[in-house]
User: Fold this.
Amino acid sequence: MPFDYLIVATGARHSYFGHPEWEQFAPGLKTLEDALDIRRRLLLAFEKAEVTSDPVERERLMTFVIVGAGPTGVEMAGAIAEIARETMLRDFRHIDPREARIILLDAADRVLPVFDVELSRKAEEQLRHLKVTVQLGVSVQDINAEGVRTKDSFIHARTVIWAAGNAASPLVKTLPGTFDRAGRIQITEALNLPDAPCIYVIGDTALSLGKDNKPLPGVSPVALQQGAHAARNILAQIEGKPLKPFAYWNRGSMATIGRHRAVADVNFAKFSGTLAWLAWVFIHLVFLMDFRNRLSVFLIWVWSYFTRDQGARLITGKK
Assistant:
């Protein structure tokens, strides 16, 4: 496909730090297909635990390990804890889902390391209140069908979820340029390539530096702002005008952990708990496409809030 101008925004996939064989045992969450696969694994684990007569196997089936205590890992741990301890309480006869063990592992010394230290502490407190076992300073040595091996122990678990690392889409390797360890390509301040000014790279595939000369985080607000800026610069190129450098406007960061549990850093204030959770709900509604979407999502959330119903429990996909 010939082009005059090109924007590459092919995102990122999971990085297993040189161990791609771990992916079959520990899927990550990047796409809708990933989400459906994780749901299938969770539901199958509970179903198998319900019918097994082996108490050791039941314990392994009801042990869920999340590797990585960034925003994705923290939100995943909180979601699984609430599903096990609230949503699925009346779904089984022989097992008590509240007995499920949810373990969150990370080699860092605190959860949500990109957040303020106090917010990290609040997030960990909220996770422990949900009875999530948080193990920090723990590096993963191996993952297989039986569970996760760390430096000091082996955790038997049938369900492992990866939330520890990202790598840029391999498509970006076909472009001319310099790459970092995560596979992101170095771009100019105008978001195009130094050696190919008609090609722009944005989002998780781009190594773009902020005001502090550090790489911008791989979050959607960065990609959204870069997309609009790249479009304006392409129009400027067409008209023969100078390109403008990109400046990221950081509106803050949020991570939700569960009902009434979240942390928020909105530059002028840092808060946690119910207020942060309400702010998270409001901001996500505001950024939906139109009023009809906002209204329908709001009504679904209200229904889920009062009924504690998490939607369809469908087991789909391949064996």
